[in-house]
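Please decode residue identities from the backbone states below.
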């Protein structure tokens, strides 16, 4: 699939998920295979242009994190244009405009899916961004419309194509639906019918390779974007790529391989952020990884109280040792195993926030 001048190695995209699909996680998903394009979290033009710390963390990328779209939100044309130029100078292969975020903080400032409410204004805004960038394609990610009475995605996508947008991603829900209900394939299909040449990427509720195939079959979309399902199974792109090409889903990664993904993710966080962030992230991220590691109750409980990289390594090592015994049929799931690092010991040492380390 091509997006403007950018040739992608496939048609599977990793969603932007604010607070989750950062550089550290993107590298893990990319290493599993099958990710043709990934995207930053939504970036505030003002923060990017001032190069404030938080925006620079969100915009961080590296050689292996390629190709990358950087996503901008807002409604101030001149700041968006400047930020789009900043993005192309700082590693973006594509600049994406967020037209789908339903969060009040964003829509109250006329950004995100508020852009679906006045499409003439949105077209004027987007045209300026398309003209402002020098060499990267501009894309848009949208929902179907604000609510059922205002479905605008087909018309908006067609007119965006006319002003030079290179692809659109459509999350098949309205803003009003937030994440409720089921994704509407017919709504995405209407966008596919409305555009002439540009790829339409279907998004929403893809939890398996079969779901991806169904999305493509029912909508005619050129590619799919997967978000939440990748947080617990970063290998879903590898599986989907194989399934779409051959009909075969590879066997799932082993427990050891899944633990190695967690280690890579944790140590990426230390490398690109710091140990404190890695520890805090993994206390919450463990519940996502745990979905595909059952039985793993002790792993979940122990990871939620880690305080350092040593704790992290001890918890993973103990889990692997216990799982080897369990999988060999030599033990049942214990309430407390002697091999297991004591969660009490870790929580006793626990400070309100883990101690910061030098970045
Ligand atoms: C916590 C959270 C944060 C999100 N952040 C963004 C974002 O920064 N930019 C964006 O375009 N979409 C964002 N989304 C929407 C996702 O990219 C995607 O459209 C949505 O989750 C549906 O896809 P899925 O069912 O595969 O997760 C976010 C979704 C969630 C749940």
């Amino acid at each position: 699939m091509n997006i403007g001048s950018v040739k992608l190695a496939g048609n599977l995209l990793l969603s932007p998920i604010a607070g989750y699909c950062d550089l550290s996680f993107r590298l893990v998903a990319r290493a599993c295979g099958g990710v043709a394009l990934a995207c930053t979290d939504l970036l505030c033009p003002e923060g990017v242009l001032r190069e404030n710390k938080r925006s620079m963390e969100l915009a961080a990328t590296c050689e292996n994190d390629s190709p990358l779209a950087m996503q901008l939100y807002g409604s101030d044309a001149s700041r968006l244009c400047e930020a789009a130029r900043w993005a192309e100078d700082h590693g973006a292969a594509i600049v994406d405009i967020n037209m789908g975020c339903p969060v009040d903080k964003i829509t109250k400032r006329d950004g995100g899916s508020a852009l679906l409410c006045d499409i003439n204004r949105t077209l004027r805004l987007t045209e300026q961004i398309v003209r402002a960038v020098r060499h990267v394609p501009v894309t848009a990610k949208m929902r179907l419309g604000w609510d059922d009475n205002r479905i605008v995605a087909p018309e908006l996508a067609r007119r965006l194509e006319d002003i030079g947008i290179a692809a659109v991603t459509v999350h098949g829900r309205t803003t009003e639906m937030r994440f409720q209900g089921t994704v509407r394939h017919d709504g995405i299909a209407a966008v596919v019918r409305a555009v002439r040449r540009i790829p339409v990427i279907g998004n929403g509720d893809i939890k398996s390779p079969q779901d991806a195939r169904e999305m493509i079959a029912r909508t005619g979309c050129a590619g799919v974007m997967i978000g939440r399902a990748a947080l617990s199974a970063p290998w879903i792109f590898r599986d989907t790529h194989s399934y779409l090409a051959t009909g075969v889903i590879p066997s799932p990664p082993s427990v050891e391989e899944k633990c190695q993904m967690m280690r890579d993710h944790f140590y990426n966080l230390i490398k690109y952020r710091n140990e404190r962030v890695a520890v805090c992230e993994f206390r919450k991220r463990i519940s996502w990884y745990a979905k595909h590691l059952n039985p793993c109750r002790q792993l979940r409980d122990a990871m939620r109280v880690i305080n350092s990289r040593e704790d992290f390594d001890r918890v993973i090592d103990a889990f692997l040792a216990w799982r080897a015994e369990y999988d060999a049929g030599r033990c049942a799931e214990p309430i407390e195993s002697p091999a297991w690092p004591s969660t009490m010991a870790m929580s006793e040492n626990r400070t309100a926030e883990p101690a910061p380390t030098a970045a």
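Observation: The pocket of flavin mononucleotide is lined by residues 15-18, 41-42, 71, 98, 100-101, 141, 171, 203-206, 226-229 (CB under 6 Å).
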